[in-house]
UniProtKB/TrEMBL annotation:
Family recorded in the similarity comment: Belongs to the inositol monophosphatase superfamily. CysQ family.
Biological processes, Gene Ontology terms: 3'-phosphoadenosine 5'-phosphosulfate metabolic process; sulfate assimilation
Domain of life: Bacteria
Keyword Secreted belongs to the record: no
Binding residues annotated for Mg(2+) 2, in chain numbering: 94, 97, 219
Compartmental location: Cell inner membrane
Binding site for Mg(2+) 1: 74, 94, 96-97, 219
The protein's name: 3'(2'),5'-bisphosphate nucleotidase CysQ
Gene responsible for this protein: cysQ
Annotated residues for binding of substrate: 74, 96-99, 219
Catalytically driven reaction(s): adenosine 3',5'-bisphosphate + H2O = AMP + phosphate
Presence of keyword Cell membrane: yes
CDD domains, A to Z: CysQ
A Pfam family per the record: Inositol_P
Lineage: Bacteria, Pseudomonadati, Pseudomonadota, Gammaproteobacteria, Alteromonadales
Organism: Parashewanella curva
Amino acid sequence: MATAVLTLPSDIIESVINIASEAGRTIKSIFEQGQFEQHTKLDDTPVTSADLAAHQLIYQSLTQLTPDIPILSEEDADIPFSQRAQWSQYWLVDPLDGTGEFIAGSNDFSVLIALVQNHKPVLGVVYAPMKEVCYFARSGHGAFKRQQGQDTQIHSQRQGEILKVAVSRRQDPQDVLKLFTKKQDVELIRLGGAALKSCIVAEGQADCYVRVGPTGEWDTGAPQVIIEEAGGKVLDIDLKPLTYNCRESLENPNFIVVGRNQWNWAKLLGI
Ligand SMILES: Nc1ncnc2c1ncn2[C@@H]1O[C@H](COP(=O)(O)O)[C@@H](OP(=O)(O)O)[C@H]1O
Ligand SMILES: [Mg+2]
């Protein structure tokens, strides 16, 4: 039987922001020193000593904060579904989203921490250490961007005639453009890391972020709360919601993060 969902203090998000910021500072210091180890994981994605240092720090801090809530991190994800199925809530963590960017020397990486309750992300923090920007949201309380100590509420409703589409810097944009069936003027915004692309949609700098190819549930958990609280959605390519901790596999389907309700996404994607 699944454990009961615990009622958490409303200011727990500040503790999570502090944990993500500390992990981000650890990553930044390794990035600036330029000395790190690098391996390729079984799924053929890279991992560095910075990912692992951030994972250790987040794991210890979250365990101290909420000893009864389990943690699913990209760097400790080998937990059988039979065990995860017992969880009614858990922390979903990507200690370093954008490892490829980190290795390449680009600034487009961030730390992601989400709280998932009853298969739905309800709290999300995305901290980008090189940009010193934090995006955060709690279900029902709006989405915010914290920069230079100032919190600004963000909204995803961008106005404009051209469809601005955020896509991975490490992917052929044709993989994304071919999904759009209707003739439409499209401007591409190339950026690294899954979360930062979602966040620029959440703050109305892009209309959507389209991801074709594998990602993990940890890549979308925290950004999903931020985009939903900013007025947008995360959907699979059939425009159905993504699911969390519902299957043995933790891989997401292809997905689209949409900000603007004025676009007819079903028509644009030929659904
Ligand atoms: N083969 C694969 N399997 C699973 N996830 C993958 C993957 N290739 C890329 N990803 C995901 O896509 C994210 C990178 O997005 P982008 O290409 O936009 O920079 C990676 O985040 P991490 O850096 O946390 O691993 C990773 O989670
Ligand atoms: Mg990662």
